[in-house]
């Protein structure tokens, strides 16, 4: 853990100074020059730092931009979707979320509770199983076939309620239907009494990077009502996609 802490300190020093030599880094983090050299070498191998034209000086590398871009993309979809989520929660009357894929989970980044929302459950930051959530399903539906298979294998397809789809053939059919109609549906598959639907959000290049979902109690957010309100959700997801730069 000490080496990780030192490596992070090196990155912070370069971020503050712009560039620094081995001796400067060593003095700043209070280590021998050989230790600082090894740390910089490891970071350079990962593209996180690079040497300037003047040998001995280091600066942040483009690997940092790559890492920052992954976070910025998530922050961007939340920022661009905030207004849409607030409007949709009023129009639909249920809780609206934005989620992204993280390993074999769908993780919720933003939530707006509708005026008719029951309870105070906050889904933000929670890792939810991809096969049992509407957000997870629509994200799965748009993955390349092999990547989808890998994610499903890692997920374990655990049965959470009597309604959870755990057979691969049935789930794949469900995902094909979701991809075809433009939205995914879950009916008491994550929790008894909870229904949800989700539509895809696309980035500038057309890749599905997030899901916009609406969820509510089964007694009110019925299957019939879900299909009736789906065009509103799709319209909202398309609006966020356009704000993200997608022109398709």
From TrEMBL:
Q: Which InterPro entries match?
A: GAF-like_dom_sf (IPR029016), HTH_MetabolicPath_Reg (IPR050707), Tscrpt_reg_IclR_C (IPR014757), Tscrpt_reg_IclR_N (IPR005471), WH-like_DNA-bd_sf (IPR036388), WH_DNA-bd_sf (IPR036390)
- Tell me the Gene Ontology biological-process terms attached to this UniProt entry: glycerol metabolic process; negative regulation of DNA-templated transcription
- Which molecular-function annotation in GO is an example for this chain? DNA-binding transcription factor activity
Cross-referenced Gene3D superfamilies: 3.30.450.40, Winged helix-like DNA-binding domain superfamily/Winged helix DNA-binding domain
The residue ranges of the HTH iclR-type domain are 1-62
Pfam families with a match to the protein in the record: HTH_IclR (PF09339), IclR_C (PF01614)
Q: Where is the signal peptide?
A: none
User: Which UniProt keywords are present, listed alphabetically?
Assistant: Activator, DNA-binding, Glycerol metabolism, Transcription, Transcription regulation
Q: IclR-ED domain spans which residues?
A: 63-246
Give the protein's biological function: May be an activator protein for the gylABX operon.
Q: What is this protein called?
A: Glycerol operon regulatory protein
Gene symbol here is allR_1
């Amino acid at each position: 853990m000490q080496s990780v802490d030192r490596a992070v300190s090196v990155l912070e020093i370069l971020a503050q100074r712009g560039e620094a030599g081995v001796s400067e880094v060593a003095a700043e983090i209070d280590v021998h020059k050989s230790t600082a050299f090894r740390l910089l070498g490891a970071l350079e191998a990962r593209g996180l730092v690079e040497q300037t034209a003047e040998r001995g000086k280091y600066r942040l590398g483009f690997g940092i931009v790559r890492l920052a871009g992954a976070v910025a993309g998530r922050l961007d979809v939340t920022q661009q979707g905030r207004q849409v989520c607030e409007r949709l929660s009023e129009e639909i009357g249920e809780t609206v979320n934005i989620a992204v894929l993280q390993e074999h989970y769908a993780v919720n980044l933003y939530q707006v509770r509708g005026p008719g929302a029951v309870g105070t459950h906050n889904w933000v930051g929670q890792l939810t199983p991809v096969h049992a959530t509407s957000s997870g399903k629509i994200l799965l539906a748009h993955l390349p076939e092999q990547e989808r298979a890998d994610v499903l294998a890692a997920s374990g397809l655990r049965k959470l309620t009597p309604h959870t789809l755990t057979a691969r053939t049935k789930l794949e059919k469900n995902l094909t239907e979701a991809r075809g109609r433009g939205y995914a549906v879950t009916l008491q598959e994550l929790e008894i009494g909870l229904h949800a639907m989700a539509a895809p959000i696309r980035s500038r290049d057309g890749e599905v990077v997030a899901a916009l979902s609406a969820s509510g109690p089964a007694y009110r957010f019925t299957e019939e009502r879900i299909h009736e309100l789906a065009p509103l959700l799709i319209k909202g997801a398309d609006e966020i996609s356009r704000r993200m730069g997608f022109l398709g």
